[in-house]
Batch of 4 targets.
Target 1
Amino acid sequence: MVDIDDKGGVQVIVKELLDAGLLNGETHTCTGETLAQQVARLDPPAPDGTVIYTVKNPYKPTGGLRVLGGNLSPEFSAVLKLAGVEGGLENNIFVGKARVFDSEADLLHSLESQPHIFENHDMIIVRYEGPSGAPGMPEMLDSTSRITTLCREKGIIVGLMTDARFSGGSVGLVIGHVGPEAALGGPIALVEDGDEIVVDLNVNELNCTKLADPAIMSARKSAWQKIFDANGGAHPSIGKVDTRLLNRMRQSAVSANFGAGM
């Protein structure tokens, strides 16, 4: 940010995006001016090409976020913060082995008491933490911090995917917003320990190899549905609700794809 400020500040970036037609200049700002009027008054310099690049000649062809589809994210909702990945991608592909947890609390307990169970190229899956399941879609900052520490201490790569969300401070191979969420019977609910998980950024997909077989997908879905029905229309792994507000959240939450609101 110090370097950006030295080259003219954020208004340089805003003007470049405005000139490229990527921002709405008629939007009003807190000064009472439109965004276009405010930038015109500030009259920022052009991008210097070293710290701030132009739209026509960007620093990289793709941004710091990827939105993934695939059989684990049929809503095309899964988000990977590429800028935070510290390793594990070979030719833009990560292949890992699923290690499944039905709550963040279970994962944190294992990281605290059994760190030895985590191995190189594990893909940790934390589910039933989505908008309906948690309810409320918590962020996994504590989990990612501990996983990052574990990886650095042991010199291994461990990924994490979840139907919950992440803080902007999270680092590592982390994928959030996987949807539909587990509480609603999304494919993330059907993954089992040891399944092969493939993250392919060449095609922006998140897949479980086993679930590519329709027979396996159908059998696991049926087994999940039996547990769901036997528990009165809710999977037993979902979080407890002890207030009317949390219950309202559970009953009316929309997918993370649409903002995870009520």
Note: The helical segments are 2-6, 10-19, 35-42, 104-113, 141-154, 214-230, 244-252.
Target 2
Amino acid sequence: GVIGAAHAGWRGAFGGVIENTLDLMIAKGAVLGNIRAAVGPCIGPCCFETDDDVPEAMTAALGTEAAPYLERRGIKWHVDLAGLNRQWLLRSGLVPEHIDMCGLCTACRRDLFWSHRKMGQARGAQIAMIALKSPQD
């Protein structure tokens, strides 16, 4: 009966939000081998363009495990945030078959999502929700 949700943008992921969430879930009784994770929609590598700060932080945190998710295109880097978050889940002990990846880019899919990076303050609000099924369900 343990469930958790976390927002893991690059700063949060770098700051340990995934590990902290899993640690708290385990402290509340979850068994690591039973945890299932879903990485929801987020800005994709197609649109997450950045300077050196993000790749440097990710490489400092994940070492060579970060490299597949960082691609230099000209003077900018493109970052696969979902892939990096998946890597943190794997590093924390989840097995690949227990991780579901949404694959939607919030910046590309303006028909479905608001993206601060693409729209600035001219955006709306969105929420995410999770719930445990009751034993009767």
Note: The first helix runs from residue 10 to 14.
Target 3
Amino acid sequence: MCSSDLASVAARAASAGARPCDIYAAGGTPCVAAYSTTRALYRNYGGRLYQLTRASDGAQTVIGVTRPGGFADAAAQNAFCANTVCTITRLYDQSPYRNDLGIEPIGGNGSPDVGAIANALPVIVDGHQVYGLNVQAGVGYRNDVTDGVATGAQPQGAYMVTSGTHVDGLCCFDFGNAETSNTDNGNGHMDAINFGTECWFTPCSGNGGPWVMADMENGLFSGGNGSDPGNTGSATPFATAMLKNNGTTTYAIKDGNAQSGGLTTQYDGPLPDIGGYMPMHQEGSVLLGTGGDDSNGSDGSFFEGVLTAGYPSTATDNAVQANIVAAGYQKVNLGFPVTGTPYTITNVNSGKAVQPDSCGTANGTGIELYTTGGSTCQRWTFTSAGNGHYIITNVNSGTVLDSVDCGIFD
């Protein structure tokens, strides 16, 4: 089938109530892994999306779509998780290959991971209130024994819908193809989307990202051999991140506003010629939220994403972006936190409030849990620091909540 025929097929699929994986299949590059906590990625998919585990008793349940081709059953999640904390402990692959993602085990550069807090990222999709997957440091998912995922120098396409306002410069918020050993096996053994503000190969564009980059192991590539100031990044509240690699000569990076408009091609050209990337040496593991060796210090948001067999056409890319925009992703206005309004931070498990040790006011005072009593040392205010981050200040002491010596370890 010639490229013009593929473009026509993809366009017809996009106009017929299709979902992203229907569009990819019509374009000749079917999904081999497809995940979402928000919606079906095939028009006829009516199965499982993700598994919840309840903190209070360890019970588990599965959240699916409300109808074939529909949206996540958030009401079932709300009922199951009422008055307790739930984590997302499994992501189900909607493709026929059933490459489900479980919690990532220990790797060469990271401890065993945990599941994301299930209700931490509420969003609206096509008028339906659902939940995204909120990745914080230590959250990660992986499947090292897959079927159909590209290996060696086989071509692959990938996209994810993420957020340009929930990012950081730590390694590595990835989604894609990685090593089956959970260790760094060398250049070209990964083919994953990375999204963040880490400038691995300098110089990077002056706006500071976040950038869609290719994690092909031992480097986050903005384009070419790594540095590509022409990759200007995408800081939109909802962002489409797209990567495709023909495995032997060429890769392309695209991004876009997931709420409107088309895609921007940030790079389309040769694979790195600095050794090991031409051809690629993909291993076929699928990961989300960490680097190939389980480097797990990053933050990010994940709403949906797929891996394909084959190198998608430009027409297919554009049709998928149009479908994402039509899905109507929107933020949920929770009305929290209100700047200057004092809040009590309460631990769900114990029912006790967070306060400085013995209500101390000195710099370096530790934090403890104590029976809620309404004192000013249990009251905190939130001030926006931009990009969805907040400075938390204790009302009594006027000092801020931070980690000891700005440490990042457990």
Note: The longest helix spans residues 314-327.
Target 4
Amino acid sequence: MNDKFMGKTQQTFFLLLRNALGNNEPLPTTLTDREWHEVWKMSYKQALIGVVFDGICKLPKDQSPNKQFILKCFSVVRQIEQSNRKLNHATVKTTEQFAKEGFKSVILKGQGNSVLYPEPLHRTPGDIDIWVDGGRDRIMKYVRNYFPNAGARYHHVDFPILNGIEVEVHFTPSWLSQWHDNMILQRWFKERAKEQYTHFVNLPEDAGSIAVPTNDFNRIFLLLHIYRHFFDEGIGIRQLVDYVLLLRQGFTEKEREETVSMLSKLHMIRFTSAIMYILKLIFKLEDKYMLIEPNKEQGEFVLNEIIRTGNFGYYNKNISNKADKAFKYYYSKWKYKFRFIKLYPRETLWGNVFWVWQYFWRIYKGYKK
């Protein structure tokens, strides 16, 4: 491992993640209480306490942290489990509500990804992202029956129908800033939508079933989700855990070639090679699950950003708080993105064009709050 960002805390953190996902690796050396506290802080920063705890449980007894630390983890894990149970039922309820209104839907990320985990209830839950069939205008009309002033962005509208749980209703799963790349992507989404709306999985503890994307769809979409957040605010290790678990579901050579072909059309090969490097470095991803050859230079740059910024960029000090003035916030995001221009010029440059276009488009459509 590269010492540039792989100190003892990081090495232990990643070893515990690997154990949680199926390995049985002992620690190279026993950790002090202070070092375990550093592991806790990193686990919290990356929203992976539940998964790391599963890895701790597989350590030899003489390498386990002290009892107080274990009880602290156990308490948080129980909270995560309860939150997942609540969100599982809420997710099923949300899909049922849209179905009653004549909308087909599929759950993106979140609880759909959790079923891939050895312990599904230990993935830290987030909000509900639901891709609804019906077109932007029809969906907006429906949402505004409940919330007349609901604002929307290019790809989704907030729909706070459940107390304490955020719901994002997607017109489309995602986007790319460059207009031609985005046109290809949106056409691909439309061509594959029908299959996604009919691909159901069962949630844990008989919570119900939901439609989730197929693996071939997610090989593009989840990587695109990582890509988008990398430029906008930052990504976290949790999103990489989701992706490595997806890849380990397996694929044929033909399926791999189709995935790589689409990623090439979207000009995402360079970023893909970075992610492959990271997954091989920290998760020991087997060669048979690699989409393309990993690139060390690209991978080290992206990994350094991930470790610095934390889960979804919550610890990204380069971006101003959203509560600040709009100019200050967007200027800070522009500066942050501009750092990537050498490696990713296409998305970096077109991203600013897309921001400006979307701002005026939202005003024109009446979607801006």
Note: The first strand starts at residue 105 and ends at 108.
